Amino acid sequence: MAKKLVWIGGAPAKARAEKYTLPADIESGQVLKATIGLKTITYTFPDGPLRPDVVDAFVSVWDTAAEDIPEFTAVSITDNGDGSFNLTAEEAGKPFVVTITIGTGTNEIQVVTLVGSPTGGSFTLDFAGQETANIASDASEETVQTALEGLSNIEVGDVLVTGDAGGPWTIEFQGALSDTDVALLLADDTLLEGTNEEQTITLASCSGGTFALEFGEETTDPIAHNADAATIQSELEALTGIGAGNVTVSGTGPWVVEFIGDLKSTNVSLITVDGSNLTGVLDVSIDETTPGGGGSNELWNLALYGDGAFDGAVEIYGSALASGGTFTISISVDSDVIMTTAPIAYDATIQEVQAAIAAVGSIANNGNYMHGVCVWESASTGTGQLSDGDRIYLWISPETAKTAASNAVSVTINNTSMTGGVYSAGTPSNPTFSSTATDFSSFYIQVDGFATDDLDVASTIAQIQAAVEALPNVGVGNVLITGDVGAYTFVRHLEFIGSLANQDTGKAVTIGTNNVDIGGHVTITFKILEGISGTGEVQTLSIAGSPGAGTFALRFGGDDTTLLDFDSTAEEIETALQALDSIGAADVSCSGGALPDTPVVITFAAALSGQDLDPIEVIYGHVAETVAGGGLPSVEIKTTQTKLAYELVTENEGPNDWNTAANWDTLSLPEDDDTAIIPDGANILYGLDQSGLSLALLEIHRSDTQIGLPRRTDANDIEYLPRYLKLTATKIVIGLGAGSGSQRINIDYGSSSPEIEVYGSASGQNGEHAIQLIGVNAVNTATLLVLDGDVGVATGPKEAAYLKQITQRGGQVWTGSDVGLEGIDRTGGLYRSDRTIIDGLVTL
């Protein structure tokens, strides 16, 4: 039964609260997105995400946004500690509208990807216990969709599959499964086929004898030089690292080995050949004509610590009179010896002194690693040895000496085992210490103008090393970072290795911090050891006799060259050696030749200079990886978009909310065919979307009550909450009775065709009309009567309205550019139009 309801307003306020729960199957790379109005924040999940950690991080992102974005400031977020969070309106009675998704929408999306480069075969997908038929590895999107729709728990239209043949395939759950957190697809990939590795075994020229094959750490029995494929296959299958059925061998020499069975689709280790028992081979020899030695890598000390912490540089004096024996170095703090080296040879180099200190490990009664004590050259005769009268510095870090009560740190040299001259230590320079811990949280390392990104002080050695290797003037494998962090200091050693080993790099290395608003801090950077190229080893390759044919190969560092001809030139030998992983392009040069008449001289340089190297081996066989084995093919399934579980904890209530029953005199909400009367009372600002409500009459009296929200907020942002009271009605009456009227009445009459009567209003605010009307009715029978007041019809951006007739007797009426109108009957007032269509004509 239709009834009349009167708006009274004034209901108690309750803050809206919502709860969101992350799904159990979150994955790295997914994006958690929150949108309020036109403002959005995002958080990308890290590797191996845990739901509580993700929520904790997302809360931080939200709180940071709330410092600057009013829409987020108006909503507080609470971490529930279980992978869920609550959102609560800061102002009770004022609602919020937020969209929380993983991805960009609410339909779950899963991506199926074949990894490992499958060459054929098939796989199946399982959805909530139902398994598809076999799906070919090169299946089209239509084939995958048909397979899924063939399951009993997925109907036609419940999934949309897109992607290229062979994948990846993107699966969006829709239809009956739309807007749902669905089960993660599972896959059976055991029938997928990958690339099997093939290796080709080639013997050097020979006339008889036997050879053996090595795989891993196992070696076959001797195999005749002219063995058939079956014999070689049998010998390889006898190795436990291979096993029966896991290789097949073809050919009569060269032989091709394909890895199958348990080793299919696997990038296995390379087989090696031992041809030392072959006969009729070339008589090739390698002689070390100049031993390598004397090289050292450039080593830097990098320290960062709080101002006032202890550091001291102690000078150790050498003596050219020293002729033998050993000495030790001890460091004492407040008369307590905290470390003593093992005996050090009297003629030790700086490198050897440093090694003796590093070997101590940790300091007694302190536990700090000896990276905090290092040596560098002070005054030199060119050798860096105390026995030549050199002086060296011993640097002691704050961490090493942090137990000092009175800065009483000293260094003692024990010469009792020395003969000839003795060594002595001076007094530590600038020895200061305080118990102030480090107050910086990040640092960077710079090499010749190229700096790493800021690194956390808790970064691992591997993380620091990777950051330095990423610098364009360093490179992967060319630096070694060592050291540890203490409570009072941060010390690292940086050693240039790889292609930067055994040389003076000419690079300047520093450490620093970009932290601001911290106490004083000190950086100590110095070169501990100069890089020295030393003597490059020279080895000579020669062939005895005067053979007219034949082949051989060379092995260095566990790597084998291809087969080389008996008459190879120095250039060909150099190219073959430089192709090995153990030798870089600049690490070896060859001269002399050509073989067999003239030996080839092999000289090691660059990263291999200054080292006493093992001799190159001569071998009489070669194995090449002719087909690289691919990784075992598999199916990877990741969820890129999904819905979070949502729960409304508390609905918004308040004195300005249409949906709060206590704001109506009947303590109930208006229903279809009712009459809603707004005589006075609190403003109606929220709960404005009543698009499902159809009133017989909406009657608004001439009072101060405002209905709707202005286009811009107090912060001059565009209002994202609904601005118009949206409902359908048979009749709408505005401005009855006495009084100055409202300054804002926003009505969207939707698809209805009401009779609208306006009797008066106050003036509008901030460039907006006091009464604003919109509504799109296809049959266009709505009418508007204006006796007085300030009325705007669809005057805002992108607003539209359709009216059959405007009758104006007073007041002012403004119509926007998208107003459909059949006629106007005016006898008074002011009428202005931006662009109104009347009977097919445009009125401007």
Task: State the gist of this model.
With 844 residues, the chain is mainly β. The chain has seven helices and 65 strands.
Describe this structure as you would to a colleague.
The structure is a single chain. The protein has 844 residues and is mostly beta strands. Helices cover 8% and strands 39% of the residues. It has seven helices and 65 strands. The strands form 13 sheets. It has a 15-stranded mixed β-sheet that branches.
Properties at a glance:
mainly beta, 15-stranded mixed beta sheet, 5-stranded antiparallel beta sheet, 8% helix
Q: Which whole number gives the mean pLDDT? A: 88
Number of strands: 65
Could you give a short account of the major beta sheet?
15 strands, mixed
Rg (C-alpha, Å): 42 Å
Structural class estimated from helices and strands: mainly beta
The coarse silhouette is elongated
Fold topology:
Blueprint: E1 4-6, E2 17-21, E3 31-36, E4 39-44, H1 51-66, H2 70-73, E5 75-79, E6 84-89, E7 99-102, E8 109-115, E9 120-127, E10 130-131, E11 135-136, H3 141-149, E12 159-163, E13 169-173, E14 186-188, E15 192-193, E16 198-203, E17 208-215, E18 218-219, E19 223-224, H4 229-237, E20 247-250, E21 255-259, E22 272-274, E23 278-279, E24 284-290, E25 299-306, E26 312-317, E27 324-333, E28 336-340, E29 344-345, H5 350-358, E30 373-379, E31 391-396, E32 409-414, E33 418-419, E34 424-425, E35 442-447, E36 450-451, E37 455-456, H6 461-469, E38 479-485, E39 489-496, E40 509-512, E41 521-529, E42 538-543, E43 551-556, E44 559-560, E45 564-565, H7 570-578, E46 588-592, E47 600-604, E48 617-619, E49 621-627, E50 634-641, E51 645-650, E52 675-678, E53 689-701, E54 725-736, E55 745-748, E56 755-758, E57 771-774, E58 783-786, E59 790-793, E60 801-808, E61 812-815, E62 819-826, E63 830-833, E64 836-838, E65 841-843
Parallel strand pairs: 1-52, 52-53, 53-54, 54-55, 54-56, 55-57, 56-58, 57-59, 58-60, 59-61, 60-62, 61-63, 62-64
Antiparallel strand pairs: 2-6, 2-51, 3-4, 3-7, 5-6, 8-13, 8-50, 9-10, 9-11, 9-14, 9-15, 12-13, 16-21, 16-49, 17-18, 17-19, 17-22, 17-23, 20-21, 24-42, 25-39, 25-41, 26-31, 26-34, 27-28, 27-29, 27-32, 27-33, 30-31, 35-36, 35-37, 35-40, 38-39, 42-47, 43-44, 43-45, 43-48, 46-47, 64-65
